[in-house]
């Protein structure tokens, strides 16, 4: 009789053994980002959130650049050239600290830098990408408008050529992460040729980015309006390699992929807080983690958390193989953000009244995820994307 192999110990932090799917380099990148977030974000983020500010954002951006976290899945121009899975692991660790920090990185790398890298001229790439990868220049991405979010085709921002060949840009963009600290903005506008993207230095005359205050979500993040009043740009400010909504939508798909991973970071942080609390909090003479109803909650949370991480990992492998479809990204964002919010809410019930305190991360993650749920595609939009893919029928209009 052949002896059965000795099974590895059950790991509550990795109950499915997902780490076995990762290469040593994957783990090294994950641990680097986790270590940075542990040292530079976690000790301070509750205070930042309470005050509604992200102090030292430019210094944080440079530090993120130094560890290769900005535009990390892009090739060349000072970018790390990491795999999609490695980028996803970084997003998970950043959002386990706070969604605002992951948003800073996502907007920089997956929206602004990605747009220039994929659709820009060689001159635009050389001018902006190395400095953005190093965190020396922060970027933002202007698509959403005050009256047009889910329907970008109806945007009112427009750009017209004047007699000398320059572009003149007018319009408003809303809910723009990094806006008031950005050195460059990628702005999408209507033109006679269709929707075009423009690389806009934020010191251009007529450009301003007032910061949005009074937020109850993503408070440790810079969110702004972009205002463009007769902003004059040279002819070569336009992104030359794309016309139409394919440009901004492909950027959004890349950023949504990071959300699939990142939302699981917020969920993991909340789950871990609830698990530790359940093992130490006593009621009726025993730890509440010993009661059946609490264990049922913890089990359900763990199942959805690690299913979500497996889904993210699967999508990452498809992206690395060049086989990831936008509908599959919608599948991941729809599922993982919804489940992350449910995990946070369940964790809050385990912590009881302590769950609303900033001494614990749970309510902060829950309120942040309310924004993550609807930005870069609302629940309804992703449902309709999947509905169209499943039925072949377009229900958007």
From TrEMBL:
Source organism of this protein record: Streptomyces salinarius
Flavoprotein keyword on record: yes
Record's keyword terms, sorted: FAD, Flavoprotein, Oxidoreductase, Transit peptide
Domain Acyl-CoA dehydrogenase/oxidase N-terminal: 24-136
Domain Acyl-CoA dehydrogenase/oxidase C-terminal: 244-390
InterPro entries: Acyl-CoA_Oxase/DH_mid-dom, Acyl-CoA_Oxase/DH_mid-dom_sf, AcylCo_DH-like_C, AcylCo_DH/oxidase_C, AcylCoA_DH/ox_N, AcylCoA_DH/ox_N_sf, AcylCoA_DH/oxidase_NM_dom_sf, Glutaryl-CoA_DH_mitochondrial
Gene3D superfamilies in UniProt: Acyl-CoA dehydrogenase/oxidase, N-terminal domain, Butyryl-CoA Dehydrogenase, subunit A, domain 2, Butyryl-CoA Dehydrogenase, subunit A, domain 3
Organism superkingdom: Bacteria
Needed co-factor(s): FAD
Name recorded for this polypeptide: Acyl-CoA dehydrogenase family protein
Family note: Belongs to the acyl-CoA dehydrogenase family.
Record-annotated Acyl-CoA oxidase/dehydrogenase middle domain positions: 140-231
């Amino acid at each position: 009789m052949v002896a059965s192999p000795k099974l590895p110990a059950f790991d509550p932090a990795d109950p499915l053994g997902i780490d076995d799917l990762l290469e040593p380099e994957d783990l090294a990148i994950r641990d680097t980002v986790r270590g940075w977030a542990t040292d530079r974000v976690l000790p301070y983020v509750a205070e930042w959130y309470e005050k509604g500010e992200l102090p030292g954002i430019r210094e944080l951006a440079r530090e993120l650049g130094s560890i290769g976290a900005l535009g990390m899945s892009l090739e060349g121009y000072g970018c790390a050239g990491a795999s999609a899975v490695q980028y996803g692991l970084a997003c998970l660790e950043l959002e386990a600290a706070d969604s605002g920090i992951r948003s800073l990185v996502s907007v920089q790398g997956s929206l602004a830098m990605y747009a220039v890298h994929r659709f820009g001229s060689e001159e635009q790439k050389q001018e902006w990408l190395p400095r953005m990868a190093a965190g020396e220049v922060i970027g933002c991405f202007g698509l959403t408008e005050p009256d047009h979010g889910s329907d970008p085709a109806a945007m009112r921002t427009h750009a017209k050529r004047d007699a000398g060949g320059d572009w003149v840009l007018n319009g408003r963009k809303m809910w723009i992460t990094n806006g008031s600290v950005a050195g460059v903005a990628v702005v999408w506008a209507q033109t006679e040729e269709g929707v075009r993207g423009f690389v806009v230095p934020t010191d251009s005359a007529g450009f301003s980015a007032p910061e949005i205050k009074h937020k109850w979500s993503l408070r440790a993040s810079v969110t702004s309006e972009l205002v463009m009043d007769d902003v004059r740009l040279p002819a070569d400010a336009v992104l030359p390699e794309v016309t139409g909504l394919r440009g901004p939508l492909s950027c959004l798909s890349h950023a949504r992929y990071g959300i699939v991973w990142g939302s699981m970071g917020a969920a993991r942080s909340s789950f871990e807080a609830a698990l530790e609390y359940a093992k130490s909090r006593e009621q009726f003479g025993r730890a509440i983690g010993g009661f059946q109803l609490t264990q049922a909650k913890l089990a359900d949370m763990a199942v959805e958390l690690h299913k979500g991480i497996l889904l993210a990992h699967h999508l990452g492998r498809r992206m690395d193989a060049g086989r990831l479809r936008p509908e599959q990204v919608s599948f991941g964002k729809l599922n993982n953000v919804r489940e992350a919010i449910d995990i946070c809410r369940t964790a809050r019930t385990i912590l009881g009244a302590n769950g609303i305190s900033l001494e614990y991360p749970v309510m902060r993650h829950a309120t942040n995820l309310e924004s993550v749920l609807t930005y870069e595609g609302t629940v309804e939009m992703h449902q309709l994307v999947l509905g169209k893919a499943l039925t072949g029928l377009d229900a958007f209009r």
